[in-house]
């Protein structure tokens, strides 16, 4: 979900909040390109030309989403190593469980990075929409990629939390139990 959200060009889409509802095209902007879809169904996209011309917040959003994807991939490999069904490290179950927990922590960090990126971008879109100085015909609303990103980030955090719940419990060090001594069979001579 995070990969799909990052690749989609629908991070924000043109708003039809003004008087002119009938338009011949729909405008989308994403992290990597901006697209225009004609009423005939034809889509034309233009990749952003220069990295240095982009706003710093868009560059930071890109970086957070790419970092989230990379962390998610690392988390998958680490968590798979810690799964009980894998043969890797099966001689030490405590280390195996710790690998699963470490994978869960990586998933949580990955989900938080994606959540910060999508929420930050969504906040910018909402602030620009409600800004009275933004012309009505250039206002944008949340695109579908933001909703996919929020859902994917939530699922990554939830999955990482579940993996962290597989943390090995500490063994309590109680003294070894001593059994009661067995009664010797009495012959009846011990009684007075």
TrEMBL record:
GO annotations of cellular component type: bicellular tight junction; plasma membrane
Keywords for this protein: Cell junction, Cell membrane, Membrane, Tight junction, Transmembrane, Transmembrane helix
Record carries keyword Cell membrane: yes
Membrane topology according to the record: Multi-pass membrane protein
Single annotated GO MF: structural molecule activity
Domain of life of the organism encoding this protein: Eukaryota
Transmembrane segments: 60-80, 100-122, 142-165
InterPro entries registered for this protein in UniProt: Claudin, Claudin1, Claudin_CS, PMP22/EMP/MP20/Claudin
Subcellular location: Cell junction, Tight junction; Cell membrane
Pfam families the record matches: PMP22_Claudin
Similarity comment text for this entry: Belongs to the claudin family.
Its job: Claudins function as major constituents of the tight junction complexes that regulate the permeability of epithelia.
Protein name: Claudin
Source species taxonomy: Eukaryota, Metazoa, Chordata, Craniata, Vertebrata
